[in-house]
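pinned: reference chain
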Amino acid sequence: MLARGLRRRFTSRDSLPSLVLLNADRINFDEKLDFTPLTSICNITSYDITSTDEILDRVQGHSIILNKEFPLPSSIISQFPSSVKLITELGTGYNNLPLSILKSHSISVNNLPTYATNSMSQQTITSLLSLSSSLHLQLKDTTKKYLNQCHLSSLPHNEVQGKTLGLIGGLGNIGTSVSKIAHVLGMHVISTSSSKPVGHVSSSGVEVVKTDDLFKESDYVSIHCPLNEETKVRCREEENETGMGTGTGTGTGYCISAKL
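pinned: its structure tokens
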């Protein structure tokens, strides 16, 4: 086995386009991925880890760059060789890429919009149910061996049936998957949208509402909008003061600037 961080070259045929994977460790952390099926359509060079200072040298001569959440600075992209035509982000978001700079250099960008849809929606619902049943508090008491310290109302349990789940930017793949599971649990689901008008009802039965109304009406809020400059601080302090009450946030990430 090659030492970690060294280059792996899977094939070399001049007639095929050349592809470089800058940070294989981000997707092949257990070393079980097999890249050889791709060798029928391209030459592959893979690096486990790439530092910012190594980017420019490692993209030389390649037409396709595969990348996983690794920031590519504008200053370096401006020096890319003309051979680079495409950057593929191995995930859903590409907030790590300066899109305007890439466009000015005629470099296309694509992503994997269905990446982790099932796992993310399951994690969202898992968090929701854990919070609604005080499971995290039960686990805490169990580890402290407070097994005989059960008192009425000490561990609140709220059934989610009939409750409202608000999704920020919830009409995409993950949000739609979340809403389908929530509906099975008997929840009402509403969402904000940057592309659909207020009042629109999606094919999965989710109504689009204003952001302020979502916070007022929701018992639970989960954030599923893409991370970019517009959404980075989407949940501002004033939005958190619109009357969410005892509601709970499940999927905040970098898009939130204050506690719900």
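why pinned: The longest strand covers residues 43-47. The radius of gyration is 23 Å.
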